[in-house]
Amino acid sequence: MQAAELAERLEAYQAYPPQYRLAKFSGEPKYEPEARAELAISYLLHEWRGRSGRAPVRPLSRRELFELASGVADYGSGPGLVSHQSPGAWSGVVSKSGFVKFAWQPAHDDWLFALSGTTPMFLPSTGAKVTGRSVATYSRLRDGFDGSASLLTLDHGYAGFTTLPTGAVVYATSGTAYGEGHLEVRNLAMPGMPGLDGSRTYQAAEGSTTVGAGSGTTTSGPRVDELTFPRGRFRHLRMLGARPDPSYGYSLYAFEIRDGASGPDLAREVGATASASSFDAGKEPALAVDGIAASRWAVSRADRPRADSWIAVDLGSSRDVDRVTLRWESAAGRAYRVEGSVDGQQWTELAAWPRPDLTCRGGWLDIDGRAGLLVRGAANPLSVYGDTVVLSDGPAESVLVEALPGATAEELRAAAAHTTPSTQSAQVKAALTDHYLSLFNLSSDSVTTTVTIPGSSAEGIRLYQGVQTVTDSGTALLAELPAASATLAPARIVLSGGRIPVGLRAEVRDGRTVRLTGPSCRVTVSAQGRSLDVTVRAGRTTTVTVPRAAAYPLADLALARTVFPTAPLPPAMTDPGAAVDGDAGTAWSPGPEGRMVVDLGAEQHITEIRTQWRGGHTPVSQAEFSLDGRTYSGAAQLSARGVLRTDRTARYVALRVTTSATRPASLVALNIA
After folding, report:
1. Distances in Å between the alpha carbon of 603 and those of 135, 144, 628, 651?
2. Distances in Å between the alpha carbon of 145 and those of 81, 137, 528, 670?
3. Residue 422 — left, alpha, or beta (φ > 0 → left; ψ -120 to 50 → alpha)?
4. Which of 66-70, 288-292, 647-651 has the lowest mean pLDDT?
5. What is the pTM (predicted TM-score) of this model?
6. Which residues contact 49 (CB under 8 A, 6 or more apart)?
7. Mean pLDDT for the chain?
8. What is the rounded CA–CA span in Å between residue 673 and residue 667?
9. In sequence order, what are the residues at sequence separation of 6 or more whose Cβ sits closer than 8 angstroms to the Cβ of residue 277?
């Protein structure tokens, strides 16, 4: 960032209490000297460069910084992180135990959403257990765009996330727990920091609300909640959690039920019993209705992160009731509902805590003019509770959310009214966001389905990889999705020019080639800013290749992939990334006995390795293969022309080079097919 912008923000940040501290939001003292050391080292590096006679460091503008930093990386199931940096946002998927979430920083505003640690984001809680993980990453060099598509198989359903080059993200879930689409908004008064002016404003179809800094904080326990509701006749009452204490879940000293403020506690009468979704040893549900102030019910340790834990009281027979009193221990529910039932099967909501500041069913929400959310297919309302947003405020349900950086309320209102893609399969969710098609298979079975994509001849018919047919309202695309997987597809080809006939069949082979069959017509075929006018004749197949357009996705499995080693490099070795950057002007110098490794991103079937060396000299080299990046096998020497034909499955491929000081070699390209 520009030095002036950084200095301006640092000064405002330092002025925020506790004054002159860098690590303001952590109670651990060790972070303050670490933060000061990082700042001091940065300053000393600038001083060293200036005094060494080198050119001074040129600060980057915000746009330059994020253009250079853009890219996608899947660090694997071990670290459990998929990271996507784009000019418009940072987004990520965290599948590490205890920290499971889908993270999003629109416009790189790290003061908008709280996303660190065990703070939930999109998923209702970070404690979900990941039993399966499917990730696809896309790079600008290989695929024509940067993006990712992830789908997690969880202990209670499926949830997926696509990240777009525009900075937008799409979240889809089969319904994993109460309160899908959970977001925590930072709300501070820190003058000089954009957005931190002491309040946040939320706007939806039904109106708007402004939450002042500090006023939106849900009170943690211990506390006493008294909830009243219209008198009704019920046998069973329960507290159904929606948001637990982030550390300890739910714990109650007492669950009291009355008819009238002065009425007796019906939960303590003869015949009344208590049950719960779970409990810790020595903290059974009966202890919440025993009248002893020091005894309590608490959820099991395993269920502490679970949002929808419950405790219920069976009064023994139906009674008139109009209020409950919940006496919480420190593990107080941050949000919950009180429900009543005659039979213990069908439940009626009686009261909720806390009461939302804003509830809407219009399907969109503008957060302080900084982020826009579109909610598709939800039966539950969207609610704002102080600094907490819940996009599906109710029982677990399948829902899809499009999250857009910087969208205005007017843009969101218009987008909510647009026709959205639909699928024949109930297990597949689809979204069309910034002309990128997101597909999520939220099931354990592979699915072949037709996706109906809206479009019109007037705006140009956008075509996606695969086979699709023009309809009177857009196209019908045949999609094949493996079990529990997601994909992100750009519009590869655009058809325009007059009326495009219904029934025209298009098979997009790659980013520049499409096969057209069907009714006779004259169309313009466009790809990557280049166009070609073609005539389609009935009964014939017309193959169109747009000149000078790239055939994305390119076949080279190594292109733009992560490589090792990184800094510091061995003596005489240069950055091995130069061998997979697609630039003929750069090359990797291995140095003596150099070795590089390329991470293909996932296990791939490999049939050929081809090397291209600078200066006509092809050194002796051999390839090795690994599934985990730790154990390598199958060492095989490349031919004198630098080629190896093989039949292997691997995620990691190592190239070991034998060179000498008299005949140094430089690798221009490492191609893997």
Report:
1. 11, 22, 9, 4
2. 20, 10, 11, 21
3. beta
4. 66-70
5. 0.86
6. 55, 56, 57
7. 93
8. 17
9. 299, 303, 306, 308, 309, 310, 311
